[in-house]
Amino acid sequence: MSAASLLRDVFGFDAYRPGQQEIVEAVVAGRNTLAIMPTGGGKSLCFQLPALVRDGVTVVISPLIALMRDQVRGLREAGVEAGALTSGNTAEETDAVWAGLEAGTLKLLYMAPERLAAGGVPQMLKRVGVSLIAVDEAHCVSQWGHDFRPDYLRIGELRRFLNVPLAAFTATADAETRDEIVQKLFDGVPPAIFLRGFDRPNIHLAFAVKDSPRQQILSFAAARKGQSGIVYCGTRAKTETLAQALREAGHAALHYHGGMEAEARREAEARFQQEDGLIVAATVAFGMGIDKPDIRWVAHADLPKSIEAYYQEIGRAGRDGAPAETLTLYGPDDIRYRRQQIDEGLAPPERRGADHVRLNALLGLAEALECRRVTLLRYFGEEAAPCGNCDLCDRPAEVFDATTPVRMALSAALRTEEWFGAGHLTDILLGSMTDKVRERGHDSLPTFGVGKEYDKRQWAAIFRQMMGHDLLRPDPARHGALRMTDKALPILKGEAQITLRRDTVRLAKAGPAVRAMVSDEDAPLLSALKAKRRALAEAARVPAYIIFTDRTLIEMAEARPRNLDEMARIGGVGAKKLESYGAAFLEVIAGEAAAPMHPHRRKLAGRDEGAVYDRLQEAQARLARGPDGTDKPMSCSASQLSKVAQLRVPDADALARLLGPRHADRFGAAFLDVLREG
Description:
single chain; 678 residues; alpha/beta; Rossmann fold; Arc Repressor Mutant, subunit A; 5 domains; 7-stranded parallel β-sheet; 11% strand
């Protein structure tokens, strides 16, 4: 079958998402390929679909067992023979995979990179006819990345041994990481590289300065009750206390961090995958293997470590393409902590410098004065117009010329020989006669009392933004005292000006910023469809989205299909899912059971050939007893009618071969008329 017909019949999509088709065509053609695509951009389809078109087995190297198991379940639900060899398999599951490989029926074999270290695995893959290697999360090959997996370094060797094409996929890879992937996986020979846009327009972006941060998170979650969400926390302890606070506020919530027992982590992952509306308070240990498409929001209770980490973490929301939201809280303590992490790390100096640049990019996004998406995409080398889907587009920042107060603050830091933090410098600028000011004689400085135009809260915002713009940087050798950077010199010398925001300290907006998922009129039906999905998922013991994603249910609620043909035209409803679930969901929509449909007819549902089949059946009914109604009854089988309906060229000889001479004599002319009408 062609890629286009498999896209429709197996995966249930009439068209590719932007950027997918070129990648699929390159992989089908057997070209070595590297695709950098945004999370939620449909990476999996770009190797799953070619695996079905190509002969032989496609081996998929993926880093996490939970992710592999979910993808295998999803493929099987869609009628695809797929299996995984993981340490989490039962003996029966492993036997079934081997049986499929030996019989030549298995099309996709998922495997963790660690398995490549086992003796004899490359030889086994050669013997079972592997014709393509697909590598998910290819950035794990980068030794500088925080997701580095040493066994990924074996993949290039495997490619050479099998002598087959390799397709590598990742969501985030800067130029440095891309070069490393090409070197390690493709021996430095550039593959076909597809760098797809980083924009995720369905995700609303928002930042807020910390001001009672726990309450800010609780308010954000309360406005999104019943929706699946992730709260990323900077420490393990915070995941536990925040999950407890969320439960006390009436949410279904659990915590997740790397210090938990492996079994407890697996249970948490399984619950999050399978339950609707669950919130997980987690460290960054949670996420890379989470393939749940209907996460409606991601909040950061603490500032992420870099702009790449931020992009990857918010990218877990809205992978189904439906509206999703984010909120990132930050404050001066976050900035100090992240700087300290970099400065006290073990990386060589040039790497630490690069990490400061990445953090600066994130702080620039946090302190942005214009559309956040413009700022974010510019970092990834893309230009965009204001998005209308971020907090700064919703409510433009109130700004002021801060050159004078910033120069005052820099002067205060220099005159105290850069030995003090923002609190003491603020006291000097406000003229506050504290014990510390008096003891050090700082009341005699020219800067003492020059900043009374601003109050303590405003000075806190100014100092935080100065740290965010990397004008002042905490010095760990001086217990976090603020030191001026080279970026500040032009402002201090009067050669440059700076604009800051006035309104940076306010509670995060509690109400949802995105439109409701469906109209008020369709909301009750969407709830009923979700209830049906939940019941089917629980019975099958699979995550709800394996049945249908939120996006598919939303389309059902809005389109209200009346029969299986209309149901088949809903995005995400492939032939196997139509067979398994179509009637059950139609009953929810129509309030009554759908008319039964012959399996051969159902395979044509939603296609033009389905309507042709119906007209052939009508013509057959008219002629069942011959043109005069007196002959012996005769009819074609459903299989024959299906084949006739799919005839590309209306040809009498081809029809006779399909039907046999007797049936062709009775029905041939009428069937040809139907086929010519198309």
